[in-house]
Amino acid sequence: MHGLRNGDNLTMKSGTDLNSPALDKDSANRNSVLLVANTSWYLYNFRFPLLKELRNEGFIVSAVAPHDNYTKLLEKEGFKVHNWKVTRNSINPLIEAKALLDLIRIYLQEKPDLVHHFTIKACLYGTIAAKFARVYRVINAITGLGHIFLGTRKRNRILRRLLRPIYRAVFKARRSTVVFQNAEDQEKLIQLGITNLAKARLIHGSGVDIEQFKPEEDSTGDFQDPIKILFPSRLIKQKGLQEVLEACASLWAEGYKFELLLAGDLDAGSRSTLSRDELSVLQNEPRIKCLGHVNDMRKIYATSDLVILPSWREGLSRSLIEAAAMEKPIITTDVAGCRDVVDHGISGLLIPLRDTHALKLGILLLIQNPSLANSFGKEARKKAIKEFQVSLVNQRTIEQYKSLLERPIKRI
């Protein structure tokens, strides 16, 4: 059985013991699922609709992540969050061993029917923990390939060779199904022999609520004065921030008038984040509005004329999908996870990687041609509705859950 009928109440308050006799007898027939990530922030911002949909479908669902500012938001909605003691960027062997043992402890305690891992460390440690805890249904979601897979430096090549056997053991494990957000990441890991086509599934990101992210009813499509250009991302180099700043500085020097909105914060967990001093310089530039972390991005998209994200690579850019759903013209890079969202010359512009001049020309083309920008925005929303709305993504994900749960367990 997959669970109860739609509509049955499964709201679980924080701290509820799922094995308590106080729960109704039908709970024994419900499949239990754990969603696992290296931050509660990720689960709340990217997988909260999936958590709710799983509960509505009759699953007993909980989260596993380090407790942070978003843990209480998940608990407020009735989801238990098991505190996984993991450090996002640590490579200390002792700390990492403790993180693995802690995850094994959680799996042994909860005895889930299925675990769904997000982010690479959760996938690696979670698959190992599942083996020790005898959890036989594992989904590993690849939310993007990091510098180890993509970097060309000697250090990255060495690490890739050293880690490949570990990755292969995890992603080719019999209990593991590997979900990719874009076809290129999938093909890359298959070529490296880390997984195979039989185990791979392609599901487009985490989806977006197209009813929440939609253009204002009274929107005319006309540009504001001054034009507002939005960069919706953390302030790190890999998102193309330096290219954005250089392109805008060049256009300002030529007399073009517009504001640059930076909707994102520093990321202490990233090696390429801006420093506090660099941020201070930006904050003192009157044509740049540093908004920090924005809880309600819809309002920011609604007040922007153009969205730019020249990222170096993405799993599948949630920001671009939100912008597309809001009917915003987009300029992004011709790389995996970005070109999946934008059809060049139809719903936006694709520019070469790390090409400041191309970005400048793209911005200039659109600010000088509002009707073209408006056409791009309308086509972008059509694509978002067709491919990226959250209901479709969650439906495909839950179908994968049910397919795995229907299979007889092969005890390994």
Using only CA atoms, what is the Rg? Answer: 22 Å
Strand order of the largest sheet: 3-2-1-4-5-6-7
Report the CATH C-level class of the largest domain.
Alpha Beta
Indicate the CATH topology of the largest domain.
Answer: Rossmann fold
The CATH homologous superfamily of the largest domain = Glycogen Phosphorylase B
- Strand elements, count: 13
Spans of at least 5 consecutive residues with low confidence: 1-25
Number of helices: 15
* Total separate domains: 2
Q: Tell me the span between the first and last alpha carbons.
A: 23 Å
Q: Which percent range fits the helix content?
A: 40-55%
Write the layout of secondary structure elements.
Elements (H helix, E strand, L loop, with lengths): L31 E5 L3 H7 L1 H9 L3 E6 L5 H6 L4 E3 L9 H18 L3 E5 L1 H14 L4 E5 L4 H4 L3 H18 L4 E5 L2 H9 L8 E3 L24 E5 L9 H13 L4 E5 L13 H8 L4 E3 L6 H6 L3 E4 L8 H8 L4 E4 L15 E3 L4 H13 L1 H18 L2 H17 L6
Helix pairs in contact: 2-15, 4-5, 5-7, 9-13, 12-14
Give a summary of the structure in a few sentences.
With 412 residues, the protein is α/β, with parallel strands linked by helices. Helices cover 41% and strands 14% of the residues. It has 2 domains: 25-207 and 390-406, 3-Layer(aba) Sandwich (Rossmann fold); 227-387, Glycogen Phosphorylase B (Rossmann fold, 3-Layer(aba) Sandwich), CATH 3.40.50.2000.
Keywords:
Rossmann fold; 41% helix; 13 strands; 412 residues; seven-stranded parallel β-sheet; globular; alpha/beta
